Amino acid sequence: MAAAIAACLVVALAPSLVLRWQADYRTGFGETRDITLSDGSVVQLDSHSAIAVDIAGTHRDVRLLTGQAFFKVMPDKSKPFHVWTKTLQVTVTGTAFNVDSARDNPSVAVQQGSVNVDERQAGRHLASLVPGQRLTLRADRAELSTFSPSQAAAWRQGQLIADDLPISEVLTQLRRYTPGIIVLRDAKLGAQRVTGVYDLRKPQAALQAVLQPHGAKVTAYSPWLLVLSR
Question: What is the residue range of the signal peptide feature (predicted)?
Protein backbone atom coordinates (compact mmCIF):
# COMPACT_ATOMS: atom_id res chain seq x y z
CA MET A 1 0.00 0.00 0.00
CA ALA A 2 2.87 2.39 0.78
CA ALA A 3 4.20 1.91 -2.75
CA ALA A 4 0.76 2.62 -4.22
CA ILE A 5 0.45 5.82 -2.19
CA ALA A 6 3.93 6.93 -3.28
CA ALA A 7 3.00 6.30 -6.92
CA CYS A 8 -0.16 8.37 -6.49
CA LEU A 9 1.89 11.23 -5.07
CA VAL A 10 4.14 11.20 -8.13
CA VAL A 11 1.11 11.24 -10.45
CA ALA A 12 -0.46 14.09 -8.48
CA LEU A 13 2.64 16.26 -8.19
CA ALA A 14 4.20 15.93 -11.65
CA PRO A 15 1.53 17.97 -13.51
CA SER A 16 1.77 20.69 -10.84
CA LEU A 17 5.47 21.09 -11.53
CA VAL A 18 4.78 21.58 -15.24
CA LEU A 19 2.08 24.17 -14.47
CA ARG A 20 4.51 26.14 -12.30
CA TRP A 21 6.66 26.59 -15.39
CA GLN A 22 3.89 27.32 -17.91
CA ALA A 23 1.44 29.43 -15.91
CA ASP A 24 1.40 33.16 -15.29
CA TYR A 25 -1.29 32.71 -12.63
CA ARG A 26 -2.48 29.60 -10.80
CA THR A 27 -4.35 28.44 -7.71
CA GLY A 28 -3.87 25.59 -5.27
CA PHE A 29 -6.44 23.14 -3.93
CA GLY A 30 -9.33 24.95 -2.26
CA GLU A 31 -8.01 28.35 -3.38
CA THR A 32 -9.67 30.85 -5.73
CA ARG A 33 -8.11 34.03 -7.06
CA ASP A 34 -9.16 37.28 -8.78
CA ILE A 35 -6.76 38.68 -11.39
CA THR A 36 -6.98 42.01 -13.21
CA LEU A 37 -5.21 41.81 -16.58
CA SER A 38 -3.34 44.67 -18.23
CA ASP A 39 -6.33 45.53 -20.48
CA GLY A 40 -8.66 45.85 -17.47
CA SER A 41 -10.35 42.47 -17.94
CA VAL A 42 -10.88 40.42 -14.78
CA VAL A 43 -10.29 36.68 -14.46
CA GLN A 44 -11.51 34.64 -11.49
CA LEU A 45 -9.63 31.35 -11.18
CA ASP A 46 -11.30 28.33 -9.65
CA SER A 47 -9.48 25.93 -7.35
CA HIS A 48 -6.49 24.10 -8.89
CA SER A 49 -6.62 26.15 -12.09
CA ALA A 50 -4.00 27.96 -14.16
CA ILE A 51 -3.75 30.42 -17.05
CA ALA A 52 -1.04 31.81 -19.32
CA VAL A 53 -1.64 35.37 -20.55
CA ASP A 54 -0.46 37.09 -23.75
CA ILE A 55 -1.86 40.61 -24.13
CA ALA A 56 0.12 42.88 -26.44
CA GLY A 57 -0.37 44.93 -29.58
CA THR A 58 -3.56 43.89 -31.36
CA HIS A 59 -4.19 40.60 -29.58
CA ARG A 60 -5.56 39.46 -26.23
CA ASP A 61 -5.00 35.74 -25.67
CA VAL A 62 -5.43 33.64 -22.54
CA ARG A 63 -4.66 29.91 -22.37
CA LEU A 64 -6.61 28.02 -19.74
CA LEU A 65 -4.03 25.38 -18.89
CA THR A 66 -6.15 23.48 -16.38
CA GLY A 67 -9.29 23.90 -14.32
CA GLN A 68 -11.84 26.60 -14.98
CA ALA A 69 -12.15 30.37 -14.88
CA PHE A 70 -14.75 33.11 -15.08
CA PHE A 71 -13.91 36.00 -17.40
CA LYS A 72 -15.28 39.54 -17.34
CA VAL A 73 -13.80 41.06 -20.48
CA MET A 74 -13.16 44.76 -21.00
CA PRO A 75 -14.92 45.76 -24.26
CA ASP A 76 -12.61 46.52 -27.20
CA LYS A 77 -13.94 45.68 -30.67
CA SER A 78 -10.55 46.34 -32.24
CA LYS A 79 -8.92 43.64 -30.07
CA PRO A 80 -10.98 40.45 -29.75
CA PHE A 81 -10.34 38.51 -26.56
CA HIS A 82 -9.51 34.81 -27.05
CA VAL A 83 -9.58 32.01 -24.48
CA TRP A 84 -7.94 28.75 -25.50
CA THR A 85 -8.23 25.31 -23.98
CA LYS A 86 -6.76 22.14 -25.47
CA THR A 87 -9.93 21.61 -27.50
CA LEU A 88 -11.84 24.92 -27.63
CA GLN A 89 -11.32 28.50 -28.77
CA VAL A 90 -13.64 31.16 -27.33
CA THR A 91 -13.76 34.61 -28.97
CA VAL A 92 -15.41 37.72 -27.50
CA THR A 93 -15.07 41.50 -27.60
CA GLY A 94 -16.61 42.22 -24.19
CA THR A 95 -18.75 39.93 -22.05
CA ALA A 96 -18.86 37.73 -18.93
CA PHE A 97 -18.56 33.96 -19.24
CA ASN A 98 -17.16 30.78 -17.68
CA VAL A 99 -14.80 28.30 -19.35
CA ASP A 100 -14.16 24.81 -17.99
CA SER A 101 -11.20 22.95 -19.51
CA ALA A 102 -12.26 19.48 -18.29
CA ARG A 103 -10.54 16.89 -20.48
CA ASP A 104 -13.60 14.78 -21.35
CA ASN A 105 -16.30 17.47 -21.37
CA PRO A 106 -14.97 21.04 -21.71
CA SER A 107 -17.67 23.70 -21.59
CA VAL A 108 -18.45 27.39 -22.04
CA ALA A 109 -21.31 29.15 -20.21
CA VAL A 110 -22.37 32.76 -20.83
CA GLN A 111 -23.62 35.17 -18.17
CA GLN A 112 -23.59 38.43 -20.17
CA GLY A 113 -23.04 39.38 -23.82
CA SER A 114 -22.25 36.76 -26.44
CA VAL A 115 -19.35 34.50 -27.37
CA ASN A 116 -18.27 32.45 -30.38
CA VAL A 117 -17.02 28.93 -29.70
CA ASP A 118 -14.88 26.93 -32.14
CA GLU A 119 -13.30 23.50 -31.95
CA ARG A 120 -9.56 23.94 -32.23
CA GLN A 121 -8.43 20.68 -33.83
CA ALA A 122 -11.21 20.44 -36.43
CA GLY A 123 -11.27 24.18 -37.01
CA ARG A 124 -15.08 24.21 -37.07
CA HIS A 125 -17.50 26.70 -35.59
CA LEU A 126 -19.59 25.09 -32.84
CA ALA A 127 -21.96 27.81 -31.66
CA SER A 128 -22.60 31.46 -30.89
CA LEU A 129 -23.82 31.62 -27.30
CA VAL A 130 -25.97 34.21 -25.52
CA PRO A 131 -26.73 34.64 -21.79
CA GLY A 132 -28.13 31.49 -20.21
CA GLN A 133 -26.61 29.12 -22.78
CA ARG A 134 -23.91 26.51 -22.18
CA LEU A 135 -22.00 24.47 -24.74
CA THR A 136 -20.41 21.20 -23.60
CA LEU A 137 -18.12 19.35 -26.00
CA ARG A 138 -18.51 15.60 -25.63
CA ALA A 139 -16.82 12.76 -27.48
CA ASP A 140 -19.55 12.46 -30.11
CA ARG A 141 -21.27 15.85 -30.16
CA ALA A 142 -21.46 19.47 -29.06
CA GLU A 143 -24.32 19.71 -26.56
CA LEU A 144 -26.25 22.94 -25.97
CA SER A 145 -28.18 23.51 -22.73
CA THR A 146 -29.81 26.40 -20.88
CA PHE A 147 -29.51 27.61 -17.30
CA SER A 148 -30.09 30.68 -15.14
CA PRO A 149 -27.35 33.20 -16.09
CA SER A 150 -26.65 33.81 -12.40
CA GLN A 151 -25.45 30.18 -12.20
CA ALA A 152 -22.86 30.52 -14.98
CA ALA A 153 -20.10 29.99 -12.42
CA ALA A 154 -21.74 28.74 -9.22
CA TRP A 155 -18.31 27.73 -7.93
CA ARG A 156 -17.71 31.42 -7.17
CA GLN A 157 -20.32 31.05 -4.41
CA GLY A 158 -18.78 27.76 -3.26
CA GLN A 159 -21.46 25.65 -4.94
CA LEU A 160 -21.44 22.76 -7.36
CA ILE A 161 -24.82 22.57 -9.09
CA ALA A 162 -25.48 19.23 -10.78
CA ASP A 163 -28.53 18.96 -13.04
CA ASP A 164 -28.83 15.32 -14.14
CA LEU A 165 -25.05 14.93 -14.53
CA PRO A 166 -23.07 11.67 -14.57
CA ILE A 167 -21.16 11.09 -11.33
CA SER A 168 -17.94 11.04 -13.38
CA GLU A 169 -18.50 14.69 -14.38
CA VAL A 170 -19.29 15.73 -10.82
CA LEU A 171 -16.02 14.10 -9.73
CA THR A 172 -14.13 16.25 -12.25
CA GLN A 173 -15.28 19.31 -10.30
CA LEU A 174 -14.65 17.83 -6.86
CA ARG A 175 -11.13 16.70 -7.77
CA ARG A 176 -10.14 20.37 -8.06
CA TYR A 177 -10.90 20.79 -4.38
CA THR A 178 -9.31 17.57 -3.16
CA PRO A 179 -5.51 17.16 -2.91
CA GLY A 180 -4.17 13.83 -4.10
CA ILE A 181 -6.04 11.25 -6.15
CA ILE A 182 -9.70 10.20 -6.30
CA VAL A 183 -10.01 6.73 -7.85
CA LEU A 184 -13.36 5.59 -9.26
CA ARG A 185 -13.24 1.79 -9.30
CA ASP A 186 -16.64 1.21 -10.92
CA ALA A 187 -17.29 2.65 -14.40
CA LYS A 188 -21.00 1.86 -14.08
CA LEU A 189 -21.09 3.96 -10.91
CA GLY A 190 -19.50 6.83 -12.82
CA ALA A 191 -22.30 6.68 -15.39
CA GLN A 192 -25.04 7.04 -12.75
CA ARG A 193 -26.68 10.48 -12.83
CA VAL A 194 -27.22 12.89 -9.96
CA THR A 195 -29.05 16.15 -9.33
CA GLY A 196 -28.26 18.38 -6.39
CA VAL A 197 -26.37 21.33 -4.94
CA TYR A 198 -23.09 20.44 -3.20
CA ASP A 199 -20.77 22.48 -0.98
CA LEU A 200 -17.34 22.81 -2.59
CA ARG A 201 -15.92 24.06 0.72
CA LYS A 202 -16.52 20.56 2.12
CA PRO A 203 -15.45 18.30 -0.78
CA GLN A 204 -15.37 15.01 1.15
CA ALA A 205 -18.87 15.61 2.52
CA ALA A 206 -19.96 16.46 -1.04
CA LEU A 207 -18.45 13.17 -2.25
CA GLN A 208 -20.42 11.25 0.34
CA ALA A 209 -23.63 13.07 -0.61
CA VAL A 210 -23.10 12.26 -4.30
CA LEU A 211 -22.37 8.57 -3.70
CA GLN A 212 -24.74 7.63 -0.87
CA PRO A 213 -27.96 7.43 -2.96
CA HIS A 214 -26.20 4.88 -5.19
CA GLY A 215 -24.99 2.65 -2.38
CA ALA A 216 -21.36 3.69 -2.82
CA LYS A 217 -18.75 4.81 -0.31
CA VAL A 218 -15.45 6.67 0.02
CA THR A 219 -12.48 4.79 1.47
CA ALA A 220 -9.55 7.01 2.50
CA TYR A 221 -6.27 5.10 2.33
CA SER A 222 -4.43 8.34 3.11
CA PRO A 223 -5.12 12.07 2.74
CA TRP A 224 -3.72 11.63 -0.78
CA LEU A 225 -5.74 8.62 -1.94
CA LEU A 226 -9.54 8.27 -1.90
CA VAL A 227 -11.14 5.21 -3.51
CA LEU A 228 -14.82 5.22 -4.52
CA SER A 229 -16.61 1.88 -4.74
CA ARG A 230 -19.84 -0.02 -4.11
Answer: 1-23
Determine if the pTM surpasses 0.90. Answer: no
Q: Does domain 20-149 have CATH number 2.30.40.10?
A: no
Nearest CA-CA partner of 41 in 65, 89, 76, 68:
76
Instruction: Please answer whether residues 147 and 164 qualify as being in contact, where contact means their C-beta atoms are separated by less than 8 angstroms.
Output: no
The three-state secondary structure class of 230 is coil
How confident is the model over 39-88, as pLDDT tens digits? 999 999 999 999 999 999 889 999 999 999 999 999 999 999 999 999 99
- Among the four given CATH numbers 1.10.260.40, 3.55.50.30, 3.40.1190.20, 3.20.20.300, the one describing domain 158-229: 3.55.50.30
Return the bridge partners of 183, or none. Answer: 227
